[in-house]
């Protein structure tokens, strides 16, 4: 079988070629968003996985995906301005909505379940509070500073603008790493977002929403770090 995906490809490139690879990477905790610049082989070796076996499996799944007639967008082919619009209208909108919902629900279960799960819930509450502040400020800075500047650069190709945009990108990628670190702590404390045994429906819902937020942020950051920012 000829390999479309090989170990030398960057993780971001693998996701662009085979979007459903995100599900596989999520299952084994491979960071394709903030770590999108890393090679597939290096990421697999870090997880102590057999590179050849895993790459063969990825290619098999890619062939199934390709033959399934699934429609998908190759974001590498999308115009930069349209990609920015997609990030704002899809991912920013989802993140603002999601963190508001989680914030309210998390406070509710903290009150109701404090007696039996105080240690875990206090940690989750504090970490989510940090993540909420980080994301809200980050998204607003992107919408008000970075993206308008990028749009001007893509239109004018002004080299002075490019230098300014690159500074904003460095700051933005550092913030992506910071949010990723908080999510990793949340993963650990919540046992990969699994509510304690016997937890109520709302408790499970909060953890599911946290997990959904993480998965959307991974795609969101991948689009920025591995595609949009690379154009600058």
UniProtKB/TrEMBL annotation:
It is found in: Cytoplasm. Keywords: Cytoplasm, Iron, Metal-binding. Signal peptide: none annotated. One of its GO terms (molecular function) is metal ion binding. Residues 86-231 form the Hemerythrin-like domain. Gene3D superfamilies: nmb1532 protein domain like (1.20.120.520). GO terms for cellular component: cytoplasm. It holds the Pfam family Hemerythrin. This is Iron-sulfur cluster repair di-iron protein.
